[in-house]
Design goal:
The protein is mainly α. The protein is 74% helix and 0% strand.
């Protein structure tokens, strides 16, 4: 999930730089649908993936988008994705903050918020170390993969 956080952060930053009003309106609509408490976790999950996919598409980086799609598919295949929607309020707060960064065309904030969001969600099914770090996911990935000399 650290790799996915880094990749989604890259796409969120790029999307913030070039996202158009139509895509922002679509994201707003998805957020409103996700806010409806009546939606079951299957519906919420589909809306959540659509929210992320719209951001990925807005970035116009198809190779990275395809890599993330493969990571999403793996998560769904393993069944872990069913555990991700136990705390919708936290996810929605994060989604709205990401959306605000996209509306402001703030790539740094969009990247940071997306990375933190994906890493927080990862903690729901694979707790690792505390996520209090404000370091980008790419730095965390580098730190975790270094081997002592």
């Amino acid at each position: 999930m650290i790799a996915r956080a880094a990749l989604e952060g890259v796409l969120a930053a790029r999307a913030a730089q070039q996202i158009d009003p139509r895509t922002l309106a679509e994201l707003q609509s998805l957020l409103e649908q996700m806010d409806e408490q009546s939606s079951d976790s299957l519906t919420y999950g589909a809306l959540n993936r659509d929210f992320h996919r719209l951001i990925h598409q807005a970035a116009c980086l198809p190779v990275i988008r395809d890599l993330i799609d493969q990571l999403w598919d793996t998560l769904e295949y393993t069944g872990y994705s069913k555990q991700l929607f136990t705390s919708r309020q936290a996810s929605q707060r994060e989604h709205k903050a990401i959306f605000a960064a996209l509306c402001a065309h703030d790539p740094h904030r969009a990247r940071t918020l997306m990375e933190q969001h994906v890493l927080r969600v990862a903690e729901l099914f694979a707790p690792t170390e505390p996520l209090a770090s404000s370091k980008p996911a790419t730095q965390q990935l580098t730190r975790q993969t270094r081997h002592p000399d």
